[in-house]
UniProtKB/TrEMBL annotation:
It is found in: Membrane. InterPro entries: MSC/AndL (IPR037673), MscL_channel (IPR036019). It comes from the Bacteria. It is a multi-pass membrane protein. The chain crosses the membrane at residues 73-95. The keyword Cell membrane does not apply. Coiled coil: none annotated. The keyword Transmembrane helix applies. It comes from Streptomyces broussonetiae. Keywords: Membrane, Transmembrane, Transmembrane helix. This is MscL family protein.
Length: 149
């Protein structure tokens, strides 16, 4: 039982995911600091005066619970876009390049699939000779019976 757990933990893709998650969390902190200390003051400045930010007070003045803060939403949106760009360009693109050098396709479009006439599973590769689910022999793929996902 421990041997199986150890092999599960030491699988290459699990390690890759764990490293990617740690890197993503580190970048998340960096991007959050950027939006909190650079973007938020710029967005708040557009409101002008002594306002708490870009938005409207829906209740009593000074009550933060009833302040509709559009500036914080804009900052969160900017944070999300920057964070996704950082993840894509610093993790996904190098990973795709690394996988391509090793003859594998990472994040590739799935190939054409066909439906098994016996069990109606729709996830069979078009070139499959047997069904993955019910093990029935499959007819050769034709252009009309294949679909892409």
């Amino acid at each position: 039982m421990l041997k199986g757990f150890k092999s599960f933990l030491l699988r290459g893709d699990l390690i890759t995911i764990a490293v990617g998650l740690v890197i993503a969390l580190a970048f998340s902190t960096l991007v959050k600091a950027f939006t909190d200390y650079v973007i938020n003051p710029i967005v708040s400045r557009f409101q002008g005066g002594t306002s708490a930010g870009l938005g409207w007070q829906l209740g009593e003045d000074g009550n933060d619970a009833t302040y509709l803060n559009i500036g914080q939403f804009i900052s969160a949106l900017i944070y999300f876009i920057i964070f996704m760009a950082v993840i894509y360009f610093l993790i996904v693109v190098p990973y795709k390049h690394y996988q391509a050098r090793h003859g594998m396709k990472a994040f590739a479009e799935p190939g054409p699939v066909k439906t098994c006439p016996a069990c109606l599973s729709e996830d069979l590769p078009a070139a499959a000779g047997k069904c993955l689910h019910c093990a029935t022999e499959q007819p050769p793929a034709t252009g009309a019976s294949t679909t892409t996902v």
